[in-house]
Amino acid sequence: MVQKTYFKTKDYCKVKFSFKVDNAETIEILGLNSDWENSVIMSRKKDGSFSADVNLAKESTHQFKYLVNETEWINDPEADSQEPNEFGGKNSVISL
User: How far is Cα 68 from Cα 87, in angstroms, rounded to an integer?
Assistant: First the structure.
């Protein structure tokens, strides 16, 4: 799930990413702000889901993927859209 909170007086939007995958020990978000080398580490909740809050510039678009257990790349089915990537797959897209 991707939940957006806009602020009238701020030039950014607070985006809450929530995701759940069976047997996940870690989940990271990569690609935000075109940064595929540095990840956003998601926090594990008691119910087994993971979440992270990220501030992203208003009127911007970001491709991203979740990296589960440092081995499996997964898209968010609730992202705004999907875009083809250079590896023949797709990336999730969030538009603000």
Answer: 18
